[in-house]
Amino acid sequence: MKQYLFPALKMTLASIIVCVVLYTLLILGIAQLVPGKGEGQVVSQNGIVKGYQLEGQSFTQDNYFQGRPSAAGYNAAGSSGSNKGPSNPEYLQVVKDRIDSFLVHNPQIKRVDIPAELVTASGSGLDPHISTKSAMIQVPRIAKSRNLTTEKINHLIDITKEKPLLGFFGTETVSVLALNLALDNLK
Which band of pLDDT confidence, cut at 50, 70 and 90, is reported for residue 111? Predict the structure, then answer.
């Protein structure tokens, strides 16, 4: 028994040291190299905190871009998905209600043209970005409610969009918070 127990204990201790201690220190060290030092970045305007760069927020007014819905109510402490699959009747009803609500606020859009990300929550429930397609589909509503030209709003999307990582990992996205702050700064 000793011939199996002691090697197993040694391996367990070695695994704990590598997986818990060394890995944690490595990730903490990497976090110190990024802006915000791993604490996230607060977005403020004129000394007033408007939100957090890596956390989605709820924008429900017609004069703002809307991000992805949140299964966690945009609460970072309770970040999670709904864990309901596409065959769950309750989930299907929630998505249908979101589609209907989107169509009420965007009557010029056809149901089939609504990007799935605007009516389904992400795994974390806190995505701060949307695709450029999801931003572009909202332009007519925002232009009408703010009495702006669509060209002006399209220009804001162009200057706030973020390219894929290294040019090819992922898709072009737009930070909903940055875009809405840019809208508020228009004179």
Answer: very high
Q: In what order do the strands lie in the sheet with 161-162?
A: 129-131, 173-175, 161-162
150-160 vs 139-146: helix axis angle to the nearest 10? 120
Q: 10 Å Cβ neighbour count for 45? A: 11
Whether 130 contacts 176, CB under 8 Å? yes
Give the integer Cα–Cα distance in Å for 134 and 137: 5
Run of H or E including 45: strand 42-45
Residue 112 has pLDDT above 90, yes or no: yes
Give the span between the Cα atoms of 95 and 112, in whole angstroms. 13
Secondary structure E strands in 92-139: 129-131
Instruction: Delimit the domains of the chain by residue range.
Output: 58-184
